[in-house]
Design a protein that fits this description.
Two copies of one chain form a homodimer. Chain A has helices spanning 12-19, 26-33, 116-125, 127-153, 156-173, 188-195, 199-211, 227-234; strands at residues 38-42, 47-49, 57-63, 65-71, 77-84, 102-105, 109-115, 181-183, 215-218, 221-224. The first copy, chain A, is an alpha+beta fold. In chain A, the strands form three sheets. Chain A has a four-stranded antiparallel sheet with strand order 2-6-4-5. Chain A has a three-stranded antiparallel sheet with strand order 1-7-3. In chain A, strands 8-10-9 form a three-stranded antiparallel sheet. The A-B interface holds A 21, 68, 70, 72-74, 76-78, 80, 91-92, 95-96, 100-101, 123-124, 127, 130-131, 134-135, 137-142, 144-149, 151-154, 195-196, 235, 240, 242 and B 21, 68, 70, 72-74, 76-78, 80, 91-92, 95-96, 100-101, 123-124, 127, 130-131, 134-135, 137-142, 144-149, 151-154, 195-196, 235, 240, 242. The structure holds a DNA duplex.
Chain lengths: 243, 243
DNA sequence: CGTCTAATTGAAGCATCTCAACATGCGTGG
DNA sequence: CCACGCATGTTGAGATGCTTCAATTAGACG
């Protein structure tokens, strides 16, 4: 892998995300942009990092959308998180050798590969950057807890309603939606994998949400027709997203 | 709150945990033991930190066992993690103001309350300690992902088998079990809350595991009678616990 | 135009839930 | 020391949410 020294890393989304948590020094931001790296593209459904991989690089999501998943014995899949531009996908590999799950692209996606040693150096020079990323780690943990609660303790109807609410809320925060309509890159099968449901039941439940006038789902785009009632059945409170 | 300056903090379990991940300097260990703190005791089922609390202190678990949970609309509860001695219970509150979940004691439990500012000072002076704790954060995230997979994609039979396997394995690692028998502090109702199952079904499934000769459950103590078969139905691989 | 993936629908089965009753053990007050 | 209350565990019966299997339709794309 040839490092792209001299081509600054497009760290816009990352820095926006980190500065939402607290200020960064100009030097820290410059150091981020100066990180040596390689750019890679992934097609929809392509695997970015395989389960049990031992990556030598940290992957920064520059563009697109990915999800985390594991495969269980029966071949079933559990999706555990979604990420958009600005996310460090495998910061854990600074400390842990192996991926305990896989990361896959949902849409055409661009990633920067940064050597682990460079990240460590940056953290030594700018501990504040490390703190902001640690902060981000805790927010992701909180989202994961919500996810777990949804899977374990909600009916399919409420679970799907919650997922859609959160997705549109996050799209809006990322400037990819007006808060009512947005592109929805998951298939019904993937939605089922995210929530622990069968495709068939996902389909029926979406129909029901649609029939009740809460959402519209035409192909790849999703519209929330009745935020108030959707939030009610979903028990959705956007506060925890820290948007 | 009066800080117990002069009474060293019993950091044995914490340091054992951190040094399992990599060495610490003597100065760092001394700084940990020198942290000002207050000791508090909790009875079984007592709430250590309430959901939505805004704690000014970081809670270090010195002794006992606690769990994390949230309450959903219907009054149902989802348990999301267990912790034993040496765990920093709310390190997230260095960055986030509110608890997004509750922490409760399972058994008689001792906790040290350490002012957030003191932890921050320690991190500034000993960045390596911060790195070890961050490392620990990622391990907990991996455990949470396993938990999620279990709730979403396993039958009750496999899910309970996995939970029991993990519990005994961790007890053994903490020196509280010989690997076959251990105290099991959860009620069947709590086990149900952890796995998203009703009490009734937990009971029946435990009976079935027992009838099949995999475990014995007499009141508060649990025995694994057939590790090989239990691991098989549980699809349990202790590697990810990093023990 | 044929092929592939995603969405849709029906029918039958089972895992799990709810409701309800009862048993067991333990702590506490009388 | 007994009696009571309360939390936990146990079991039965019936309801249902969700799954599986199977077949069909609708779009997307070379």
């Amino acid at each position: 892998m040839a490092a792209n020294i001299g081509h600054p890393l497009p760290v816009g989304p990352l820095i926006r995300k980190l500065e939402a948590l607290g200020p960064l020094t100009g030097a820290a931001k410059a150091a981020l942009a100066d990180l040596p790296h390689t750019i890679r593209q992934f097609a929809p459904h392509e695997v970015v990092l395989q389960q049990a991989a031992q990556p030598a690089n940290i992957y920064l999501l520059l563009n697109g959308c990915v999800f985390r998943s594991t495969v269980v014995i029966g071949g079933e899949r559990q999706i555990m998180a979604l990420h958009v531009a600005g996310a460090m996908l495998n910061l854990q590999n600074l400390f842990l050798e192996r991926m305990d799950h896989a990361i896959s692209a949902l849409v055409p996606t661009t990633v920067a590969l940064i050597p682990r040693s460079e990240i460590r150096k940056l953290f030594d020079a700018h501990p504040l950057v490390a703190m902001r990323l640690w902060h981000e780690t805790f927010i992701e943990a909180a989202i994961a807890r919500k996810w777990l609660t949804g899977v374990g303790r909600r009916t399919a109807y409420a679970s799907i309603a919650h997922f859609l609410s959160e997705f549109v809320a996050r799209s809006k925060a990322a400037g990819m939606s007006d808060g009512k309509t947005c592109e929805f890159p998951l298939t019904q099968a993937e939605l089922g994998d995210a929530l622990g449901l069968s495709v068939v039941h996902v389909n029926r439940t979406l129909k029901k949400l649609s029939r009740h006038g809460l959402i519209s789902w035409n192909g790849r785009s999703l519209t929330i027709d009745d935020w108030a009632r959707l939030n009610e059945v979903a028990d959705f409170d956007p506060a925890y997203l820290e948007l």
